[in-house]
Design goal:
The structure holds two protein chains of two kinds. By secondary structure, chain A is an alpha/beta fold. Chain A contains five helices and nine strands, in the order βββαβαβαβββαβα. In chain A, the strands form two sheets. Chain A has a five-stranded mixed β-sheet, with helices on both faces. Chain A has a four-stranded mixed β-sheet with strand order 8-7-6-9. By secondary structure, chain B is of the alpha/beta class. Classes of the chains: A alpha/beta, B alpha/beta. The complex binds zinc ion.
Chain lengths: ~220, ~350
């Protein structure tokens, strides 16, 4: 059994079988409160899958991109769960889960009203008037979405131009489907590939201001 | 669960130290700390986002190191403990997320506890000290907090007598060090500079110590006025074209901080008829603070307890120790329904306790 955890937008946890059969998927759309819900969601996903922690063989971690405070909770949880069981963590770019969902849906339904998904961008809210986006084109032989460009940030009012330049159709995502995240991880595992980064995809440097000279208190 | 000498793994991520501790009952097996202090040095203070990122990277290696040092495996652990607050929210969340997932994966109980009460629990791990007696007054001083507590029972009755209204004492050291052109962290630098200085050279103010403050702020602290006073004094010297006697400024500043801390702590002992004072927090590493506290307490017949310094700075062992006490006193575990609480009051020793 494979456990998928993502907190890059809301909080989402899923349990799948290694061949991709989804056993459970639970969500909290609260864009904050990741730390509050993560333990309950993991417990709930295992219970709905009728799985015990000892049956989990791999943990798939959504590595972002995402606003950092929430993103870290899921990664910390994925690593700790895996450590508790002595099993590996499979890192996956969170946008890959959305891309895989879109591509599988297209394959099943024969396409979208506004044309094919030849080249498209998964777009998520990065806060601070920015979007995070990743450009994709189709599935590879391992059944994994092909990233044309890696996750990046664009100011809200420049995103359309950026995507037009890349020839990518925009696909906004409000949530990361944890089951598809786990499936991407399972496919990577089957193909003996590592498809995600080892570290969180913050895409932003920490907010810091270097101290200026001490302010004078006497005018 | 073993309730006589539980094996507890504690996780602490409230500020810039990633602490993982393992205790068995009251015996310390490991106190593993990874600090991101060096990364904050160039900013002159703890940067919350830098600290939180460092926790995520340091936590897993710290847990492994603590297990190695203790010679135990995760399967042996009776319970997981974690700091729920107070502290930096983003930093706390890393520990909370990890601790919950670890507890679920191990199918072991989780205890979510209060960081400040953890500082008191650190004392229990001191194998050389006689058992902690109640009630005791506790003075906790660090870069993040300055609190005066009345502890009637570590696991059930801790009262906040007073706390800082603005900067923590450790923060005041950092800020004044910067004023004097000394590097971060300021505590050891001020100490070094003060060594050759005269603590009575300059009469810096003692915050919230006037008679008029005593009604509402008898046990509260304030250090921002002191910092401003130091700044004003040095600027006036500079304006007059005179050199700054750094050693005297450092010694006089330090004396003002130490004096107000010790005076208020001993007043609390006197007012409550408690002849015991426990010191905790990273600033206790300051030699002058310990010396003045010991000297003046002895004169008033107050016994001072100081845990080993490695247990005074933020650490996971104190979190494990507090959970171990809760377990041994029969308290149920926490549910998974709690978050990081950056302002968790000290009266909440354990959060989200099962009904
Ligand atoms: Zn502390």
């Amino acid at each position: 059994m494979i456990l998928g955890i993502d907190t890059s937008l809301g909080s989402a946890v899923a349990v799948i079988e290694p061949d991709g059969v989804v056993r459970s998927q639970v969500d909290s759309v609260d864009p904050r409160g990741h730390a509050e819900v993560i333990g309950t969601l993991i417990e709930q996903a295992l219970a709905e899958a009728s799985a015990s922690p000892s049956q989990v063989t791999h943990v798939v971690a959504g590595m972002g991109p995402g606003p950092f405070t929430g993103l870290r909770v899921g990664i910390a949880a994925a690593r700790a769960f895996a450590m508790g069981r002595g099993i590996p963590v499979l890192p996956v770019v969170s946008h890959d889960a959305v891309a895989l969902e879109l591509l599988l849906h297209e394959a099943l339904t024969g396409g979208y009203e506004d044309g094919s998904l030849e080249t498209f961008a998964v777009v998520t809210d990065a806060r601070r008037r920015e979007f995070a986006y990743t450009v994709y084109r189709g599935l590879d032989d391992d059944g994994l979405p092909v990233r044309v460009s890696e996750p990046a940030l664009a100011p809200r009012d420049e995103l359309e131009d950026v995507l037009a330049g890349a020839g990518a159709r925009r696909r906004d995502a409000e949530r990361i489907p944890a089951a598809l995240l786990a499936i991407a991880g399972a496919r990577a595992l089957a193909a003996r590939r590592v498809i995600g980064p080892a570290d969180a995809l913050y895409l932003r440097s920490p907010d810091v201001t270097l101290p200026s000279a001490p302010k004078r208190v006497v005018a | 669960m073993n309730r006589t000498a539980p094996l507890v793994l504690g996780i602490e991520t409230s500020c810039d130290e990633t602490g993982v501790g393992i205790v068995r009952g009251r015996t310390l097996l490991s106190n593993t700390i990874a600090s991101s202090m060096d990364e904050h040095a160039r900013y002159g203070g703890v940067v919350p986002e830098v600290a939180a990122r460092a926790h995520l990277e340091a936590l897993e290696p710290a847990i492994r190191a603590a297990l190695d040092e203790s010679g135990v495996t995760l399967a042996d652990v009776d319970a997981v403990a974690v700091t729920s607050g107070p502290g930096l929210a983003g930093a706390l969340m890393v520990g909370v997320g990890a601790a919950k997932a670890l507890a679920v994966s191990l199918q072991k109980p989780l205890y979510a506890v209060n960081h400040l009460v953890g500082h008191i629990a650190a004392d229990i791990l001191d194998a050389d000290a006689p058992p902690l007696e109640y009630p005791t007054v506790a003075l906790l001083v660090s870069g993040g907090h300055t609190s005066l507590l009345l502890v009637r029972d570590l696991t059930g009755d801790v009262e906040l007598l007073g706390e800082t209204m603005d900067d923590a004492a450790g923060e005041a050291f950092d800020k004044v060090a910067r004023l004097l052109g000394l590097p971060y962290p300021g505590g050891p630098e001020i100490d070094r500079a003060a060594a050759s200085g005269d603590p009575n050279a300059i009469a810096f103010p003692r915050g919230l110590s006037r008679a008029s403050d005593m009604a509402d702020h008898r046990y509260d602290f304030s250090f921002s006025g002191l910092k401003t006073a130091v700044a004003r004094w040095t600027e006036q010297r500079q304006a007059a074209g005179e050199p700054i006697p750094v050693a005297d400024v450092a010694a006089s500043f330090r004396e003002a901080v130490v004096d107000v801390l010790v005076t208020k702590a001993l007043a609390a002992c006197r007012d409550h008829g408690v002849p015991r004072l426990l010191l905790g927090g990273g600033v206790i590493a300051n030699r002058r603070l310990r010396d003045v506290a010991l000297e003046r307490a002895a004169a008033e017949g107050v016994t001072v307890r100081i845990p080993p310094l490695s247990l005074c700075t933020d650490n996971g062992a104190m979190i494990a120790a507090l959970a171990s006490e809760l377990i041994m006193s029969g308290r149920p575990a926490s549910t998974l329904r709690f978050g990081a609480d950056s302002t968790l009051p000290v009266t909440e020793i354990q959060v989200a306790e099962e009904a």
